[in-house]
Design brief:
heterodimer, A: 6-stranded mixed β-sheet, globular, B: mainly beta, Immunoglobulin-like, 7-stranded mixed β-sheet, 3-stranded antiparallel β-sheet
Chain lengths: 114, 115
């Protein structure tokens, strides 16, 4: 079946604007993760949703970042008042039933803040 | 806090040569270790995990708790092995040995295998 999909694939925005990044997990996967891939920082965890449990937001770098997951499926990562240091590839992953299962990654959204 | 270190950002070898990508972790408890690979213009994907103790595409990795290492090895590198490799870590928590969801990644190593 289809893998994890993300949209848009590329996003260029001006500093100070808000952006929304979307992730469609694999059908039936209850766990969803957001990571950020940047040149200086490597791959960093941002946030983790597992079923109806409260999300683990421990990786969000500032309060400008937020994410939600509606109906246990699609997730949106929102970055408010974007800064140049937010430029990165944002990766989404999903897995079955959370922790012990393989995480499958999407193709990523490349965000460029000018 | 747990941390994963991959000391080499770039690694170049010739086809047929042995290759070892180094990974060290810092964590006082029980870890679950992984290697992920990203080929050019492809998605990040799981290569292998230490609990499987298997060889994938000729690669193996052994968890050494004494040295807190999980180095990735292949005896004879191939050109198609050229990619970005990430070592990653999950905490194992609870009496049931459940591993906690988020992955902590190293900085990654770009492997180039020359013909």
């Amino acid at each position: 079946g289809a893998g994890v999909s993300q949209s848009p694939s590329n996003k260029v925005t001006e500093k100070g604007k808000d952006v929304e990044l979307r992730c469609d997990p694999i059908s039936g996967h209850t766990a969803l993760y957001w990571y950020r891939q940047s040149l200086g920082q490597g791959l960093e965890f941002l946030i983790y949703f597992q079923g109806n449990s409260a999300p683990d937001k421990s990786g969000l770098p500032s309060d400008r970042f937020s994410a939600e997951r509606t109906g246990g499926s699609v997730s949106t990562l929102t970055i408010q008042r974007t800064q140049q240091e937010d430029s990165a590839v944002y990766l989404c992953a999903s897995s079955l039933q959370g922790s012990s299962y393989e995480q499958y990654f999407g193709p990523g959204t490349r965000l460029t803040v000018t | 806090a747990q941390r994963v270190t991959q000391p080499e950002k770039l690694l170049s070898v010739f086809k047929g040569a042995p290759v070892e990508l180094k990974c060290n972790y810092s964590y006082s408890g029980s870890p679950e270790l992984f290697w992920y690979v990203q080929y050019s213009r492809q998605r990040l994907q799981l290569l292998l995990r230490h609990i499987s103790r298997e060889s994938i595409k000729g690669f193996t990795a052994d968890l050494n708790k004494g040295e807190t290492s999980f180095h990735l090895k292949k005896p004879f590198a191939q050109e198609e092995d050229s990619a970005m490799y990430y070592c990653a870590f999950k905490r194992v928590v609870g009496a049931g040995g459940t591993s906690y969801g988020k992955l902590t990644f190293g900085q990654g190593t770009i492997l180039t295998v020359h013909p």
